[in-house]
Amino acid sequence: MDQFTSQQPQSSSAVSVPSAVGGTPPISGAAAIPTLPVDESSKTLYVGNLDQGVNDAFLQEIFSQCGHVENVKIIRDKNFAHQGGLSYGFVEFFDHATAASALQSMNGRRVLHQEIKVNWAFTGQAIGKDDTAAQYHIFIGDLSPDVNDEALGKAFNAFGNMTDARVMWDNTTGKSRGYGFVAFNDRVDAEHAITSMNGQVLGSRAVRCNWASQRGVPGPTYQQHGMHGSAGTFKTPTAQGPQLNTTVYVGNLPPQTTQEDLVPFFQPFGIVDIRLQPDRGFAFVKLETHEKAANAIAHLSGSMINGRPAKAS
């Protein structure tokens, strides 16, 4: 129950589960779901495309058909006006096997008036934790492949009130992208972590540390060696565009792509607006903040959308 605040049972919805949940999931509905790295300890599912009539108690009742549900949490996305303001949520099961079974049986089913989208919750997603948007984030580069969220958190936990640590994963390969983010409540603690950890060995590599968020100092451009040993440059995701830019370009989209297909990918990052050009194969997705846009790019680049790897920038 580490990802959620415990929920007290509420009164059951007036709509019975059999009449509110539609039959077998359509293949087309499942195909648009992001392919995320699966941790065998994962037991939390992302549930997107929720009708506004679904509340916590009703969501728990529906998924309890698949096994014991520990917690549920629905996020009311007020910024997302498309299709009447759909919500999304998270369902935590007692174990991984039950969650995996629920993913297979519930993805694409119709609940009230919408076909829900179900997938594993993002690795490191801070559901139920304090919002880190107003905190001090630092970028950790050159991470070795064996460093996960837990190892990153242990390395930086000694520098004060650390609130979050996450490694960015490639959604196609399931491997680390080689960088991550750590959040602190206090700027002094974040500065101490940067000066102390920059150049220190974590796992099998010396890591590079600098500011990642707008509240800190803009980070420099680092050198990264490509697959063939040639040196290239990269910036931290928040430095890849203008500091006020909150819009993500999504390219290489198949012509049959709809706005509904894009929602499960971007809704956890706070959708404000989607402008889709299906005949031209791209879309512009406006998110709540620059940092959320940068994290969406880091998480979603290469994700399979309707059979093609999306290009996010």
UniProtKB/TrEMBL annotation:
GO terms for cellular component: cytoplasmic stress granule. InterPro entries: Nucleotide-bd_a/b_plait_sf, RBD_domain_sf, RBM42_RBP45_47-like, RRM_dom, RRM_euk-type. Residues 43-123, 136-214, 246-313 form the RRM domain. The keyword Protein transport does not apply. The keyword RNA-binding applies. Residues 1-20 are annotated as: Disordered. It comes from Modicella reniformis. This is RRM domain-containing protein. Keywords: RNA-binding. One of its GO terms (molecular function) is mRNA binding. PANTHER family: RRM DOMAIN-CONTAINING PROTEIN, TRNA SELENOCYSTEINE 1-ASSOCIATED PROTEIN 1-RELATED-RELATED. GO terms for biological process: nuclear-transcribed mRNA catabolic process, nonsense-mediated decay; regulation of mRNA stability; stress granule assembly.
